[in-house]
User: Fold this.
Amino acid sequence: MQIHSLIDALVLFAQQQPVPKGPADDGLAGILSNPFMLLPLILILFWFMVLLPNQRRERREREGLLNALKKNDEVLTNAGIIGIVANVKDNEVSLKIDDNTRMRVLKSAIVKILTTKEVSGDNAEASKKSS
Assistant:
């Protein structure tokens, strides 16, 4: 009888179906073949390869611009105000707008340092538009 029950047990184990593999069991091939998983991987790769280096470069350029500010530079603020730097402190800049008008702004409000060509070009464009 023991042999008969042992044979019955072996027959039952032989009839058991194998467990089907899921997509997680396929490894890297399963991930890459699934379009819902491939798109986020491509976006992450794009961010690391394209956007992150551009952000670093722009931040370095901005820091260089703010560190290069000195007295008598003509600057443009993010509010569109053009003024001449009268004084530079740690985190703020005093701008001379007119003869008797001075304005204190944060350094981070400075968009760019203007040259005499850019200012005269802007004035020439404005006079053409008003004509």
Summary: The radius of gyration is 35 Å. The longest strand covers residues 82-88.
